[in-house]
Amino acid sequence: MERRPAEGVAPRAAGRPETPATRVAVDIGGTFTDFVVWAPGAADLRTFKVLSTPDDPARAVLAGLGRVLAGASEARPSPSIVHGSTVATNAVLERKGARTALVATAGFRDLLAIGRQARPELYDLMPRKPRPLVPADLAFEVDERVDHRGRVLRPLEDAEIDRVVAEIHASGAESVAVCLLFSFLRPEHERRLGERLREEGLAVSLSCDVLPEFREYERASATAINAYVSPVLGRYLGRLAREGPRAAWRVMQSNGGSVGLEAAGREGVRAVLSGPAGGVVGALHAAGACGWGRIIGFDMGGTSTDVCLAEGRPRVTREGTLDGLPIGVPVVDLHSVGSGGGSVARVDVGGALRVGPESAGADPGPACYGRGGDRPTVTDANLVLGRMDPEGFLGGTMRLDEEAARAAFGELAERAGLEPPPGLSPEQAAALGVVRVANAHMERALRVISVQRGHDPADFTLVAFGGAGGLHASALARALGIGRVLVPRTASVLSAHGMLAADVTRDYGLTVMLPGTTGADRLREGFAPLERRAREAMEGEGSASGLRLERSLAMRYRGQSWELDVPLDDDPPGAFHAAHRDAYGHADAGAATEIVGLRLRAVLPVRPPELPEAEEAGPDPGAALDGERPVVLVAAAGATVEPVPFYRASALRPGHRLAGPAVIVRDDTTLFLGRGDEATVTSRLDIVVGVAGTEVGT
Amino acid sequence: MSVDPVRLEIFKHLFASVAEEMGGVLRRSSYSPNIKERKDFSCAIFSSAGDMVAQAEHIPVHLGSMPLSVRACLEELELGPGDVAILNDPFRGGTHLPDITLVAPVFTGPDGARIGFVAARAHHADVGGMTPGSMPLATELYQEGLVIPPIRLVAGGKILSGIRDLILANVRTPQERSGDLDAQLAAVQRGADRLGGLSDRYGADAVGEAMEALLAYAERTTRRLLSSIPDGTYRFRDAMEDDGRGGGAAAIDVAITVQGDAVRVDFTGTDDQREAGINAVRAITLSAVYYVFRSLVGLDLPSNSGCLAPIELVTRPGSLVDARRPAPVAGGNVETSQRIVDVLLGALAGACPDRIPAASQGTMNNLVLGGLDPATGLPFTYYETVAGGAGAGASVPGASALHTHMTNTLNTPVEALEYAYPFRVTRYEVRRGSGGRGRWPGGEGVVREVELGAHARLTLLTERRRLRPYGLAGGGPGAAGRNLLVRDGREEELPGKVSLDVRAGDRVRLETPGGGGWGEAGET
C-alpha cells in the first residue's frame, strides 16, 4: 500500500477502547454486506444488511456507513469501524490481483510451480494444479546462496541485482515477491533486492518479512499471495479512507484479530480468510458472555457450512489454504463442507440421494424464492416440512413460495422412488430425506474437527449461526451427544458482531532450529527482535499500552518433521513432552527435542461492546406465540405431522422458556426445536437450547 | 429395495466417517514422519464377508489390495471378539514388506454376530532386510525384511507381547516401529468401537443391509460406466525396461475385453517374474485395475469393493504381475504398479480415446541415500520420491511436476532437508522441454540435484530411463528420465536401478520423465 496519509484515521482509537465512540462492524459477504452498530448509551445493538455490490464492493460499504452515520453530530468523536472484506480473497479466487513476479535463489525459480508435488485429487486421470499467481515468464532467479546456518555460500553481487531489477522492470510486473533460500536466517540479500525494487516504484513483498520461517514453498506461497493481493487491497482500503466517513478504521485479519488500515494494506495475505475468522470470534464472544469457553462453531450459510472448535480463543493453524495455495501465516482453523441452505438435492446414477455440493446460490436461489429456481434445496426441504414460516422470511419482506417447493420435491420423490411412511406425503418424505442427508454430511464435518482430533463433543457448546444453522443445530447436537446449543441473537450477522470484539493482534514467527535444551537467556535474546517489531507495529496502530505478548515455541522430537506449539516456560523439553502426550497420547521423555521456531503473538485487547441486558420476564412465552402450523416431526416410532407452536423472536423476553417441538422465527434465521428440547432466552436475548437425549432421526 | 436412496446416502457418510476417524487416530498417534507427514497409510471398513465398504482416501496402491488382507485373515484365522490380526506377507494378503496391516473383526457383543471388519495399513520406514528402508535390490523376498504371515497380535483383548517383541527385534528402529504399531492398534480399536456403535444405533441387520446396498451401489455405478465403453477387446503392451539385476526388459501385456456392463482384464501375456525386486503380487495388479476404473467413474464414488464386482482379473501365476514366493517384491508397489496403469490406460485409449490421457511419467523415481552424518556421528537414511510429468488428454495439457497415478506423497522441503542431512540441494526445477509434443503437450518432468557433504550409499529405483512414456492420438512421447552422477566436473549417466557409494562433493541429479502428448502438434 502506498504510504499516503490515511485521511480520516483517528490515531490511538484502537488502543483506547474506552473512547465513547460509535463502533461499527462491516462484513462483506457474497450476497449481503452486514452491519452491526453499537452506539454508546443506545439501548441496543443495531444490525442490518445491504445487498453486496461485487463489481465494486466499496459501494455497499459506503452506502451502509452513510445510513449508520447519517445525522451524527460533528461534536461526537469519530466512529471506529472494523471492516472484514472479501477483496483480498476474491483477488486470489478470481485471479485478479496485481501482475506479480517472483525472485528466487538460482536453481529454484520453479518453487511455486512445483509446490509439494502432490495432486489435489487422488482419482483424477488428468490432474490439474491450482492456477499459479506468478506466471512462468515472471519467475526470476538471482545467483546467491545461504546455507542452513546462515552462512553465505555465494554472495549476491550488485551487478546481479542490477541485472534482475532491469529484467523485472522490463517484464511489466507491478508487484514482486522475493523468496531466497534460508533468508529467515540471513535476510540481507532479500533486503538489498527489496530496496532496489522499491526504488523502481514496484510493490515489494520479502519472504523474510511476510513469513520468516523454514519450508521454502510455503514461505514463497505466502509471499506471493501477499504481493498479489496487497496492491489491490491497499487501493481499496485507501479509497474507503478517502471517501468514507472520518473514522478510526481497523481491518479484520484471518487470525481472528484486527489491525490498522495501513498495516492491513501492506500485509494482504493476512486478510484472506477474515470473514470466517469474524464468525469464530463472534461465536466465542457470544458463548463467553454466557460463561462458556469451549465451543464448536457451526456456521451454515447458503452454499457451505464452516465448522470450528475453540477453547476460549480461536484456534489457529499454519496449514490453511486458499484455492489450493498455502497461506502460511496463521489463520483460524476451520473445516468447510459444501452443504448449505441452497444445496441442491438430486438422485445420482447409482440411485443415492445426494445433497450438494452444487448450490442454487442466491440467484435463482431455492425454488421457494420464486425467482425461477425449480430444483429442490435444503431450504425448500425445511419449508416443505413446515419448519419455516413462509410469511416470516427476511422479516416478512419476502414471501416463500410453498407450492414451488412442494413441486420441486414432488419430482424428487418420484425420481427417488421413495416409499412415504404412513402419514407423510411423498414430498414430505423426500424433504425429510434431504434434511437427513444434509445432517449426515454436516455431522461428518463436525466429527472431523472434534472426535478426530481427540475431543469429546459432549464437552462443548454448539454455537449455531449463519442463515440456516438454527434449523439443523439441535438435530446435529443430538447426533453428536452435545447437550447445549447456543443461537446468538445476532446469529445471521455474527461474523460482523465478532469483528467488534476482535483484539488488535499480530503474529510473528522465526525459524531458529535450536536444541530443546537451549537456555532461557538465548531464547530471550531470540525473541527480542520479534518483540521489538511487535512494539513498533503496535505503536504504529496508535498505542502499545496494555500490549500483551504471548511467546511460544514450535518444538518437535529430533528427526521428526512436524511441530507442536508449546507456551514458553522454564522447561521447554518438559512442556513439549506434556504437549505431545496431550496431542498424540504418548511422549518419549528420553528423546532429544528441538526448538524449530519462536512464535510471538502480540495482542492489544479491545473491550467488546457491552450489550445492555434486557429486563427479565416470566417463563411464559405466550406473548410471542404466533399461532400453530403443521410440522413434520420424527420419533423412533416414525414420522408424524403435528401442530407445532411458532414464536416471533422479536417478542421473546429474557427468562422465557420454550419447550420443543417449536419453531422460533427471527427476521433472518429460524430455530427449530425438536421434541424434548427446551429453550431459554438469556438476558441478552440469545437462545440457549437444552438438547433432548437420543432420538433417532431428525 | 430395503435400503432407500436416503439411507444409502446417510450410511455412505456414516461409514466414511468411521474410516476417516480411524485415519485421524492413526495419523495423530503415529510416530514416524512417513505416516504423519507423508500420509502413507490407509484405513477401511469391511463387510462381514470381507468386502471393503468404505476407505479413507489416502494411497491408491492400497485400495484394491486391502480386501485381500481381510480375506487372508478370514481364511487363515478364526478371529473372535477382541482379536486383532497383523500381516505383511506379500503372498498371504500383503503387498510389499514395509506395508504392515492390522485387521480386527467387529461383533455385536462378546457372544454376538460378526458385523464386519476394520483394517489399518501403514508403510513402516524399516522392516529389516539388507538395507535401511527395506527396499533393497534383492533377489529373493527374505532379503527384503521380516515376513509376517496373518497371525494374532491381540487375542481376546490381550496383546501377545511375544509376537510384538519378535517383530521389534527384527527391525532397525524398534522404538519408532513400536509407536507406529500402537497407533495402528488405536486406529483399529477406534474403528471397531465406532462400527459397533453404528450397530447399536441402527441395529446390526440395518448396518449389514446398508453395507450390501453400498456395495451394490458402487457396482451399479461402475457397470454404468462400463456400458458407456464400446464392446470389444483392446490390447496394449509396454515394459519395465530393466530389472536392476541385468535381466533386461520385462513386458507387461494386457487384453481388456468389454462386453456390455462387464469387463475382463487379462494379463496372461505378461513376462515371467524375475529374481529382482520389480515383481508385483496380484494385490498390486488389482489395485492398479481398481485405480483406473475408479478414476474413470468419477471423483465422488465411495471407495469400495463393489467397483470390482463387474471386473474379472486374469493373471498368470508366476508372472511379473502375479509373482509367487520367494520372489522379491519391494519395487512392485512403487514402480511396476505405474506400468500396469500405463498398459491399462493404453488399452482403454483404443476404446474411448477422449477419456484417456497419454502415459504419465510412469515411475516414482525412488532415491535413497544412507550413511553416517559426520556432524553428529549418527546414521541417516533419506528416502524421497520425485515428481514428473502427467500425460496430456484430449483437450487437456499434461500437468507438470507432480506425482501421478499410484502415489501422491509430498516432497521434502529443501530447507527441511538441509537441516536434517549432510547434503545440499543445488537445483530443483521444472525440466523444460521434457513433455511430449502434441496438440495438447505432455507435462514436464523435474530436475532435482543433490550435492553430497559426506560419503553415502546411493540406491536408485527408477524407470522410464530408456522406454519413454507414450503419447496418444499422434502426440509425441515424453522425454526419458536421466540419472546422473557429477564427479570432479564430469557427468556420468547412471543406470535406472543401481546401488553405489558416493562421496562428499559428488552431485546426484535426477531428471524425471515428462508425460506423453496428445494429438498431433500443429493440429487445430
Oligomerization: heterodimer
Helix share bin of chain A: 25-40%
- SSE class of chain A: alpha+beta
CATH topology of the domain at 13-91 and 234-280 in chain A: Nucleotidyltransferase, domain 5
Q: So what's the CATH class of the domain at 13-91 and 234-280 in chain A?
A: Alpha Beta
> Number of DSSP strands of chain B?
20
Largest sheet of chain B: 7 strands, antiparallel
Distance between the termini of chain A: 51 Å
Q: Which strands sit side by side, in order, in the main sheet of chain A? A: 19-14-13-22-23-34-33-30
Calculate Rg of chain B over CA atoms. 23 Å
Q: What is the CA-based Rg of chain A, rounded?
A: 27 Å
What characterizes the major β-sheet of chain A? 8 strands, mixed
Assigned CATH superfamily of the domain at 13-91 and 234-280 in chain A: ATPase, nucleotide binding domain
The CATH architecture classification of the domain at 13-91 and 234-280 in chain A is 2-Layer Sandwich
> Helical residue percent of chain B?
25-40%
Spans of chain B of at least 5 consecutive residues whose pLDDT stays below 50 are none
Strand order of the largest sheet of chain B: 2-1-5-4-3-6-7
